[in-house]
Design a protein that fits this description.
The chain contains seven helices and 13 strands. The chain has about 260 residues and is of the alpha+beta class. The chain has one domain: Deoxyribonuclease I, Chain A (4-Layer Sandwich), CATH 3.60.10.10. The longest helix is centred in the middle third of the chain and has 20 residues, at about 125-145. The chain is globular.
């Protein structure tokens, strides 16, 4: 089973660059999208349906901002499509979490808050850390119920120095603050595993996001902020993970997780 996760920074823009061809070539069983930045009806009007796939779409209340979706092959059995985060209003308002229950595992596809300062001066790091507290608590609840969990998302945090091209220059940057990195550590200490670092603990120069400024991509000045994380009892079901850095249509590259199950 192949699961691809991708922050597309606008699904309509990526669709014009070849989203359908990408899906056809890679043939994922599940495609998790972050930052769709479009209403479902806009997607259907401009992109049309993607053959052989069903989907769920989490639209927030602010047009052209955030939002998530999961596409999955129509032969896959879905037990539950309820998005439990809809019950938490300030998470629902931005459509940041899409959830599907595939039986063998529950998939949480998320776009985490950036944590910067809003135009009105509102400080957002606290909001970001609160988001982490809720996702940790909810994931723990699922695991306590005996469920396996796959979390895939744009975390908007670099966890360790090996995951960023220039750690010293970014010590005070949002996304690499000690208080943010500690929250990712807290998540992992609750019994979850960053699959890339589990399989490739010493690999360097593997990133997922770069700035559009300063020729960052050309110079490999990237950050690894897109992850697949699973509960520790599910680790042996994972075969491999790959950062698809040759796909150039967004400021993030797709990440592919391969499971041993079919």
């Amino acid at each position: 089973m192949k699961i691809i996760s991708w922050n597309v920074n606008g699904i309509r823009a990526v669709a014009k660059k070849g989203l359908k061809e990408f899906i056809s070539n890679e043939n994922p069983d599940i495609l998790c999208i972050q930052e769709t930045k479009a209403f479902e009806e806009q997607f259907l009007k401009e992109v049309w349906e993607i053959e052989w796939y069903n989907y769920v779409w989490h639209t927030g209340e602010r047009a052209g901002y955030a939002w998530t979706a999961i596409f999955y092959k129509d032969h896959l059995n879905i037990i539950d499509t309820k998005n439990h985060f809809w019950e938490i209003e300030h998470f629902h308002e931005h459509g940041r979490i899409t959830e599907l229950d595939f039986g063998d595992f529950i998939l949480l596809n998320g776009y985490y808050p950036n944590g910067g300062t809003r135009a009105d001066g509102t400080e957002m790091v606290t909001y970001k850390l609160d988001f982490y507290d809720h996702i940790i608590a909810y994931s723990n609840l699922l695991v306590e119920e005996g469920r396996n969990v796959i979390l895939t998302w744009d975390l908007n945090i670099v966890h360790t120095e090996i995951d960023i091209a220039r750690p010293k220059q970014n010590q005070n940057s949002i996304g690499f603050l000690p208080i943010e990195r500690a929250k990712v550590s807290e998540l992992l200490e609750n019994g979850y595993v960053d699959m890339f670092r589990h399989l490739y603990p010493e690999q360097i120069d593997t990133y997922s996001w770069w700035s559009y400024r300063w020729w960052a991509r050309t110079n490999n000045v990237w950050w690894r902020i897109d992850y697949f994380v699973v509960n520790k009892d599910f680790v042996n079901e994972v075969e491999d993970i790959k950062y698809m850095t040759d796909v150039l249509w967004s400021d993030h590259c797709p990440v592919m997780l391969t499971l041993k199950m079919k």
